[in-house]
Amino acid sequence: GEVRKLYGELWSITKLKPIRWLVLILFTIKVPFAVTDGATSLKLVEYGVNKEELAALAPLLVVLGLLTPIIIGPYIKTGKRSLSVILWVMPLRMLAGLVYQVTLVLIRSVPSRSEFPAWLHILIAFATSFHAIAMNIQFIACMCFFAQISDPAIGGTYMTLLNTFNNLGSKWPISVCLWLLDMMTTKECRASADSGALNLAGMTCDAGGEACPGTCVTTVDGYDTQFMLCTVVGFVWLILFRKKVMELGTLGQSAWRIQ
């Protein structure tokens, strides 16, 4: 009986108009960062950055993760402020994606991993840190807003429901991004020193390049295409949802609670 009552309350919560708007926002707000969040690490490794180098940044990211709430926490005291932080950090996250994009372009321009200059390693560390800080700020602001609107009478169940929507909204864009990545990447089979003067016309780089006797060269990287599309989506999202997000921040506690 109690379990059925609990699920009935959750269903009633999802029928609240502000909650439906919040769910729509949560399911779309991460789309502008999908390729940056989901594929950047893969591309860094693909272009020659050691996994060990990326792993070595983990302690720095842990420290940043601890400092960010301390710095941003005092500012986020009301629902309106929490949502305003979520909004102003969106361009910051898109800028972090741009820094990653520039970093990848510079890495591709270096012939081999052994030739990476010191400043490029510093840029990789900066890009990773910048991205982590922007992501942490938005996450903390989101959690603060959830805590402010949750009904204490239902305990942590309300927070769990909102976190579930938030997690789903974070994961589905990355899944779609990774699924489309190879489809949006174009490679050409070109002659290499070992292939000699072979006629490579009609040869493809499908199946991991096994059908190409020469060298598979990427002519269009799906990451670059997706980054441009995601950035456009980000600006469109801000135009469409900015006003509604600020409206949700002005609602009283009663608007988020069932009778």
From TrEMBL:
One of its GO terms (molecular function) is acetyl-CoA transmembrane transporter activity. Keywords: Membrane, Transmembrane, Transmembrane helix. It comes from Octactis speculum. This is Acetyl-coenzyme A transporter 1. It is found in: Membrane. One of its GO terms (cellular component) is membrane. It comes from the Eukaryota. The keyword Transmembrane helix applies. It is a multi-pass membrane protein. GO terms for biological process: acetyl-CoA transmembrane transport.
